[in-house]
Protein 1
Amino acid sequence: MARTTPHQHVHTRRTLTDGEPLYRRVASELLGELRTGTVPPGERLPGERQLAEHFGVSRETVRQALQLLRREGLVATDRRGSHAALPGAPVEAPAAAGFPLGARQPGRDPVARATVAWEAPPPGHAEPLGLAPGRPTLVHRYWSASPGGREQRTAVTSFSAVALAEVEELARYRDRADGTGAAELRRTYDWMRRAGLSLHHRDTITRIEGTPSVRVTRRVHDQHARPLELTELVMDAQQDVLVYEFMVPAAV
C-alpha cells in the first residue's frame, strides 16, 4: 500500500464517515487503490491491522470491506492472506529491477514470450541451488526475437527452495506453473528485495564454440549466502548487446 501522511489519514477518515455504510466506503477506496496498481494483481494485501490504520477505521470494518470485495471476485484469500484478483498484468517495476537476465533490450521492440513450469530443473542447476537430484522446482523460460523473427535471446531460470519459501509472489506460481501460460515474473528481483533479501549476482560469460553466441550464467544468492536463482542466457553476440544492471540491498 502507498504510505500515507497524518494529513492523508485525516482526509480519508473525513470522507469515509458520511453517507453509505463505512465498510462500503472502505471497500470503494481500497478498490480504487487496486485499480491504480498500488497493489498489483496477484500480490498480497497488507494485513487487517495495517489496512485499518491506513483507512483510519476498525479491523472489523476492514473485514467487512474485504468480504464485500471477495463476494464480487475482486479480492481472493488463501492460506497466505488476501491478494488482488483484478484482471490485467502486474504494474511494471522500475527499470533497474528487470528480470530475467537479458530480457531488457534498450532501443528495440522485440517479440518475447515467457512461461513457468513446476518441474525438475535443467542439468547443472540442481546442485548449485541446493536441490536434490530430480526434485521439481519453479522453472522460468524466456525467449525473444527481433520483429523480423530472428531469434536473439533464450533464457532458463531455476529457483531454489529458499526463494520459494521466502518470496510469496513466487510461491503462488507453483499451482499454475503448467509450462503453457504466460508468466509475469518481471518484478522478481523487486519481490525478493521486498521480502528482505539482499541480492548478490555473479555472472559468468563464455563463448559457445562454433557459433556467434555467448552463454551468460547468473547465480544469485542472498545476504546469508543462500542460493536463490540460477539463470542461463544464450544470446547472439554479433546482433545483440548485453546490459548489466546491479541491484541495491534489500528494501526496508
Protein 2
Amino acid sequence: MERKVKVAAVSYLNTKPLLYGFRNHPVMEMMELSMDYPAKIAQQLIDGEVDVALVPVAIIPKLKEYHIIADYCIGAEGPVASVCLYSEVPLNEIKRIYLDYQSRTSVALLKVLVHEYWKLGVEFVDTNGDYQDKIKGTDAGLVIGDRALEQRKVSPYIYDLAENWVRFTSLPFVFAAWISNKQLPAAFITEFNNATGIGIQNIPAVVAENPYAVYDLTTYYIHNISYPLTPAKRQGMQKFLGYLLQERVV
C-alpha cells in the first residue's frame, strides 16, 4: 500500500497489553492509529473507513472480505471478569436485560446463552448511554469493559459470559480479534504481529503504567484475559459464528 494503513483499536484496560508494543515500534511508520469503543470501530471497518481494527468478532458476517492478521486476540478460557450479566436477583427471576451498546459480540453472546443455554424468556432493552442505575429488581444489565469491573462491587449476582460459554460448549471464547477488510502487505503484517505481542510478554510493565484500584490487573491480564489466538480459540470462534447465522439469536 502506498498510503499508511489505518488501524483502529479500543481504549479499554483489556487492550493495553496489545497496544503496549506499538510505541517506538517500526510498524508505526506504516500505520495511523485511532481509538474508540468496539461497536464504533466495527462500523468503521465495515464502512471501509479503516483498514484494520481490533473488532468484536460478531461483525465478521457483515464484512465482504476479512483477514485475521495477528496471533493475539481478546479471548478467555474461563471467567473473563469484564463481560458479565449483573443482577439483584437470581438468573431465573430476571425479566428484562439492558444491553451494552458498546459491543456487538457481547450482546450476541448473551443472546446465545439466554436462548440456547439458560433458556430464559426475557425482554432485551437496547441502550445508548449509561444504564447501570437501571440494574435493580428484576431488571438486569449486560455490562462490558472497565465499567463491568466497577459493577462487580455493586451487583450481588454476577454471571460471567465467557465462563458460561465454556461450560456450554467446552471451548474458549474470542471477544475481539485484529481483523482487516482487505489483503495487506506481508511486511506490514509481520511487523504488526510482532508489535501486538510485545505487551503480552511484558505484563508487569503494562500493569505498572496503568494503576487501577478497582480490580487487580495482574489477575485480569494473566488469568481472566487469554491473549494468544490458539487453534481452540479459533474453533470456539467458528462455533459462535455458527450461532450468529441462526437469525433468532442475533
Protein 3
Amino acid sequence: MSGIQGKVVAITGASSGIGEATALLLAERGARVVLGARRAERLEALAARIGASGGEAAWTCTDVTRRADLTRLVELARDRYGRLDVLVSNAGVGPISALDDLRVEDWEQMIDVNFKGVLYGIAAALPVFREQGFGHFVNTVSTAGLRIVPLQSVYAATKNAVRTVSEGLRQEAGDSLRVTVVSPGLVRTDFADQIDPQVRARILDRLDQAGLSPDAVARAIAFAVEQPDGVDVGDIVVRPTAQS
C-alpha cells in the first residue's frame, strides 16, 4: 500500500501548475486532498475531476495573504476528514524585474504571497500538528534561491526566507513533525504571465526549450510525503538537466 493512501493533504496554489499536478497525483495515490487557491471555478473543476476519477477532494477559496484563509483551509481538512497530515505551501508569484525599475508593489506582493503566505500556513497548521502529534510541512521554494541572477533578487530573497524558516522549523519540530523544502527549477506553468513584458519573451523561450512539466515536481513532493514515519526528506532540488 502506498504511504500516501488515506493521508489528508492541504495544498495552496492548487488551481494550476505545480499545485494542480500535486493534487491530481496525490489523489490518484489515495490521498484526500483539500484544495486552496483564489480561483473558485478552477478549484471546483479540479475537485470534480478528482471525484470523477474516484478520489476525494474538498476545496475553499484561499488567498494566502490573508491569515484567516489559511486557518479556514486547515479547519476544512479537520472538519471534513478529522485531521491534517500534510500542508503543501505552494502558492507563489514571481513578477521579476530589474531593481532599477523600482516595482515596489511587485516586491511587496512577492513578500506577502511567497513568504508571509507560508508563515500564515505554519501558524494555521503547527498547533494542529502539535495537538495531533504528527504532521508534515512541504514548502515549495525555488532554484532561484540557490543561484542568484539578475532580475530575480527579490523573488530569490522571498524563497530563501522560506528556506531559512523551514530549516528553523525542522530543528524546532522534534521527532514527531516533518519539514520538506522542494526547489523546482524551470517549470512550464503560467509563472511567466506575471513577468515584466520586456523579459517575458526570453523566459518563455527558455521554458519552451528546457522547462519541466509540473508533474515532475509533483512526483518529488509525493516522494517526500510517502516516506514512513521517522523519515524526514529535508531538501529536494528538481531541475531540468539542461538548466545551469
Protein 4
Amino acid sequence: MSRLRTLPDPDLMPALDRAMVRHDLAAGLGPLNPPPRILLLYGSLRARSFSRLAVEEAARLLILFGAEVRIFDPSDLPLPDQVEGDDHPAVHELREHALWSEAMVWCSPERHGQITGIMKAQIDHLPLEFGGKRPTQGRTLAVMQVSGGSQSFNAVNTLRLLGRWMRMITIPNQSSVAMAFKEFGEDGRMRASSYYDRIVDVMEELVRFTILTRGHADQLVDRYSERKAAILRRDADKDLATQAVG
C-alpha cells in the first residue's frame, strides 16, 4: 500500500502565466539533472483540505520546473509514541520518503494560531537521526500556510522554527494564503491571484536553493560537536570490543 497521493491534472495550471515562466531556473547554480527530489507534506485530513490543495498547486509547479515530487497522505499516521517503537507502516513509509528527498514543502492550516496536530505529528515522526541516517538534515525547506481568516504568519513562523530544529536549510521566501476558501474554485484549483503568484515565487526559490546546495549539504551542516561525539562513541565501542576479547 502506497501513501503517496496521485496528483490530479499535473500539467493543468490555469492560474499560471506561462509566458512569465523561466525554464532556466538553475542557470549558473548547477545542473537540474538528476531532477530535484521534493517531498510535500500537508496538515489537514478534511475531504476539501486547503493545505492539500495548496500543496498540489505547488507540486504542479515543481514538476514544471523540472523536479520529481511526492505528496505524502497522513490519513492513517498514528500519533507519536502511540505505537511501540514507531513500528507502523505509515511511519516507515514517511521516513523512507524523507530519506529519498533532497527538499521538502511543509504546508499547514493555521488552527488556534498555530500549526495543526496532523502537521506536527508528521514532523515528530522524522527523528534527527535513526539507524545512522538523517531524514531532514541538510535538506532545503519551503514553508506555507493557509488560513480561514485574515492573513497571518503564525504557522509559517512555527514551521520555520521546526525546520531550523530539524537542521534544514529553510529558504527565505514563504507563502501565507488568507481566506483560503475564497482562493480555490469548486474544482479544487487555485484562482489567479497574488497568493498564487507567491506560491510560484516560493517554488522557484526552492528549486534554486536545492540546486545551489546540492553536493554541499553535508559540508554545510558539518558540526564540530558531532565530529567530537562520533570519535568518543568510536573509542567507547573499541574499548568494549577490547574488553570482550580480553
